[in-house]
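A quick aside before the break. I want you to see a complete sequence-to-structure record at least once, exactly as it would be stored in a machine-readable document. Don't worry about memorizing anything.
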Amino acid sequence: MQFITDIANPVIAILATLLILVIFKPARNNSFWVLLKMFGGIALAVVIKFLVHRARPDNQIITDSGFSYPSIHTVSAVILVCTLYELLNQQEKRNVGLIFFNIFWVSLVMTSRIALGNHYLTDTIGGVLLALAWVYMCNYYRLKKLDY
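That is the input. The structure line, written in tokens, reads:
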């Protein structure tokens, strides 16, 4: 569980996002939106974390400081898998294997954060919902901007 949590660290997610941009070389406009999704999603989660001010569980196996809600590890994992999915599925077809892998990975991250005692279930669910809403909003405005 510690290994999964370490891989899902927001800093690792940011580095992975930069690596994705180097590998896929999307158009300049798309690169902006990919970076906005990751950095903006993490920033939004940090702001909400400080506004909500929810204490972490008492039974932490690996001590984590700061507040609990929402789980930034989960937010960054969801944004990362959404970004990968969008870049790998440019052909307008659904890649079912990739969808299941993404769901599996996010579930592992959520489970690791809860199992290590760093978050409550609601923290990780809140992280998933926040990240999905943020990605949807970014995609909506990106597509709307392209219409002009």
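Two observations worth writing down. The mean pLDDT is 86. The chain has six helices and no strands. We'll return to this after the break.
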